[in-house]
Design goal:
Elements lengths: L11 H9 L5 H5 L5 E3 L15 E15 L3 E8 L4 E6 L4 H6 L5 E11 L5 E5 L2 E5 L13 E3 L8 H15 L9 H5 L9 H9 L7 H32 L10 H9 L6 H14 L6 E6 L5 H14 L3 E5 L3 H16 L10 E4 L5 H13 L4 E4 L13 E6 L7 H10 L10 E6 L5 H7 L4 E5 L10 E6 L3 H13 L3 E5 L7 H18 L5 E4 L5 H12 L5 E4 L12 E6 L7 H8 L10 E6 L5 H12 L3 H18 L21 H13 L4 H14 L5 H10 L6
Parallel strand pairs: 4-6, 9-14, 9-15, 10-12, 10-13, 11-12, 13-14, 16-21, 17-19, 17-20, 18-19, 20-21
Antiparallel strand pairs: 1-8, 2-3, 2-5, 3-4, 5-6, 5-7
Helix pairs in contact: 6-7, 7-21, 7-22, 9-10, 13-23, 19-20
The chain binds adenosine-5'-diphosphate (ADP) and magnesium ion.
The site of magnesium ion has 4 residues, from α10.
Length: 712
């Protein structure tokens, strides 16, 4: 293995930049692959250009002028006989301006964009350009596709090109194959392609290569990467499963008594989930379970049963929710549900903890936790602060946290580690944002998954309509009529600007406006800047039916449960993401009456916004919506910015490469059954290192803590 600094031109500064891309050794460069290619092999007639693509064009400048707008710019019209395009420079000097004059012939390379209201005018901003002179032969076009590498600040494509060229010369023949022959043999499409072949082709495609052939090489490499990821997460799961946990094996006779007291009976799906979880909890190894169920599918009661089982077994449990509002609601519902239930011996003591609980109240809770007096602790992130120490924490439940990365999950688990007995708590993670299969296998394969795929009976599907903001008056009338008929309404004012203050202001303004227009109704207001007890008071009033219309920001996005609310109006719906809209909408449709959701939007709608609103209007299926959301936003955004602990994939693209997932799962499963074979084990380890070298530093250091022997 040779260090990157052995290459020509690599000094300390470049080494540092390369490290940002996880490139440390020469061989790492081979696996730093272009994510796309530029086609500089042909000159495209201007009439054939399409916005969003890069082209080489050649034409004559037919006019050039400096425009003074918000920003000064130099505009040239370029014509090639088939059409005209505008060439725009924002930064230019006098020499450039003079040289780009009428009559000159230029060759440009750049991305074409449409400009102007009608979107029919095409433009290239700051293209690379060359002025061609009469007495000079036309410069040569590139012979093959130009690779474009993922890069970082201060690292130019040219440098990466030169470095990868050196790496191809030095290291390509030494690349080791870690996939067993049997795996490759069983893959028809690309199994016959060797690693060096595929790598060379992707770095330096032959001039004659077809897209189809290029895709075969790409699949070969993507398969490797996804398989590495699959193996690493499954090994993680297996390793956690080897750790000890307290088996919670209280006699289950209390369960039937509890179910008898519930005002409803569990759906078949809830029953299945409960059975699975109770079986997990009786194991002497930590449960690692992801419970997925669409909004309103009834995950909370399943969680409650799990905590009761922990209690009956003499252990503590913690339930964490992402917002104070939601945590408080869980606390109230659970306490209420338990108040009528005494069959598990004495009643469990349930407490609430959040950042807003301070001073002596907080001290008291901490003491009672450490003493083991509190059985079930419900709260926000505050549950996992350093000072919070449990006497015997055996179960942690995290609600509505689909955005947790592997690293955070491990950190939470570590938090619950009992250092005296070396046991880990059981972990249950609940989410209403269904995780599309592609993401699940790449980011959640360290969890076993259970799906509640059924809503409680008697729910009528929510009717969703999209209505332009200009018809606000009609909507107000409808809201009025609903309230007179005894229904309750959510009026949601989502993010207008990227600022919390402005967002709240929007809600304040709307509330005022609605109060003026509908003076005989009671209007409530919740937003993120209210104090916890103020929020709680408004929510209580709404719950009790004392408020007709609750004007809110997206604080009510997750989990809030008021069954009598059957109409939701969402302002500026065009600005929200699909999953968020679906979450919000899930606040209605919880009771027996028919519910509706009105999406108010401001015209004109962008193409993306139109597509989003259409999707949400036509579907009530969380899985379908999540898949669409993933496709529209890409995995990075979908998983959320907080997902910092997780490097996104290096080369694979979960949307483009979805077709490979079943193959990866199938072959991964086969490999894992053979992992006792030392060659397969060591090659799998090397494969994982190749693709996830130091990028998962956080995960690795936590792993090191949890399993000291697992990753030296
Ligand atoms: P989510 O899965 O979105 O967290 P909740 O647990 O908040 O859903 O449940 C939504 C509502 O459905 C609650 O009012 C809850 O009491 C009710 N519920 C849960 N399970 C059932 C059931 N089996 N039958 C009827 N209502 C149920
Ligand atoms: Mg919930």
């Amino acid at each position: 293995m040779s260090d990157i600094s052995t290459l020509k031109g690599v000094g300390p500064k470049l080494t540092e930049r390369l490290a940002k891309l996880n490139i440390y050794e020469v061989a790492d460069l081979l696996f730093h692959l272009p994510t796309r290619y530029q086609d500089r092999t042909v000159i495209t007639p201007i009439s054939q250009l399409e916005a969003g693509t890069e082209y080489v064009i050649e034409g004559e400048i037919t006019g050039s002028s400096v425009r003074f707008g918000r920003k000064r710019s130099l505009l040239c019209s370029v014509e090639d006989g088939s059409g005209t395009i505008t060439f725009r420079l924002f930064h230019f000097n006098r020499v450039q301006q003079n040289s780009l004059s009428r009559g000159k012939v230029v060759r440009c390379f750049g991305e074409v964009r449409s400009s102007g209201a009608s979107s029919t005018i095409l433009e290239m901003s700051h293209p690379e350009y060359q002025i061609l002179t009469d007495n000079q032969n036309s410069p040569k076009l590139a012979e093959s596709l130009t690779p474009i590498y993922p890069t970082t600040e201060g690292l130019r494509q040219r440098t990466l090109y030169s470095l990868t060229s050196q790496a191809l010369t030095i290291s390509l023949t030494k690349v080791e194959e870690y996939l067993p022959k049997s795996t490759l043999d069983s893959i028809q499409n690309f199994g016959g392609t060797t690693l060096p072949q595929a790598l060379r082709a992707l770095h330096r495609p032959e001039p004659t290569i077809s897209t189809q052939q290029l895709n075969i090489y790409r699949d070969r490499i993507v398969f490797e990467e996804l398989l590495a990821r699959h193996l690493s997460l499954h090994q993680l799961l297996n390793k956690i499963k080897l750790r000890d946990a307290s088996p919670l094996n209280a006699d289950l006779s209390w369960l039937q008594l509890f179910l008898n007291k519930l005002p409803f009976s569990l759906t078949a799906a809830q029953q299945r989930a409960t059975d699975t979880i109770l079986a997990d909890l009786q194991q002497p190894h930590p449960m690692q379970r992801l419970l997925q169920g669409d909004v309103g599918s009834g995950k909370t009661v399943v969680a409650l049963i799990a905590t009761l089982h922990a209690y009956a077994s003499g252990a503590q449990s913690a339930l964490m929710a992402p917002t104070e509002l939601l945590a408080k609601q869980h606390y109230k519902n659970i306490t209420a549900q338990l108040s009528q239930f005494t069959e598990i011996g004495s009643k469990p003591k349930v407490s609430f903890l959040s950042g807003s609980i301070k001073g002596s109240a907080r001290r008291e809770i901490l003491e009672q936790l450490a003493d083991g007096e509190i059985d079930i602790l419900i709260g926000t992130h505050a549950l996992f602060q350093k000072e919070v120490k449990f006497k015997k924490l055996a179960l942690t439940i995290i609600d509505e946290q689909h955005r947790f990365g592997v690293e955070q999950r491990l950190a939470l688990q570590q938090k619950g580690e009992d250092t005296k007995t070396a046991t880990l708590p059981h972990q249950l993670i609940m989410t209403a944002t269904p995780i599309p299969r592609t993401l699940a296998m790449s980011f959640y394969a360290d969890l076993e998954s259970t799906v509640i795929d059924e809503l409680p009976p008697g729910r009528t599907p929510i009717k969703t309509v999209t209505i332009p903001e200009s018809r606000r008056e009609d909507i107000l009338e409808r809201v009025h009529a609903s309230c007179i008929a005894g229904k309750q309404v959510y009026w949601v004012c989502p993010l207008i600007e990227e600022s919390d203050i402005l967002q709240c202001q929007a809600a304040v303004d709307s509330a005022q406006n609605i109060t003026e227009q509908l003076p005989n109704l009671k209007i409530g207001l919740v937003h993120g800047r209210l104090k916890a007890d103020e929020k709680e008071q408004v929510m209580n009033e709404f719950h009790q039916g004392n408020i007709d219309i609750l004007v809110a920001t997206t604080v009510i996005e997750v989990g809030v449960d008021v069954p009598n609310a059957s109409l939701m109006i969402i302002e500026n719906s065009e600005r929200l993401g699909l999953s968020q809209l679906h979450q919000l909408r899930g606040r209605v449709g919880r009771g027996k009456v028919e519910s509706s959701c009105v999406l108010l939007y401001r015209s004109p709608l962008s193409r993306v916004a139109t597509e989003r609103l259409q999707t949400i209007r036509n579907s009530n299926d969380g899985f379908q919506i999540a898949q669409k959301d993933l496709e529209m936003r890409g995995p990075g955004d979908f998983l959320g910015k907080r997902q910092t602990g997780i490097p996104l994939l290096r080369f694979a693209d979960l949307i483009r490469d979805q077709h490979l997932i079943p193959l990866v799962e199938e072959q991964g499963a086969i490999l894992l059954t053979q992992i006792d074979n030392p060659t397969i084990a060591s090659n799998s380890e090397k494969l994982i290192k190749r693709w996830l070298p130091n990028s998962e530093k956080g995960v690795r250091s936590l792993l090191l803590h949890l399993y000291p022997s697992s990753c030296e």
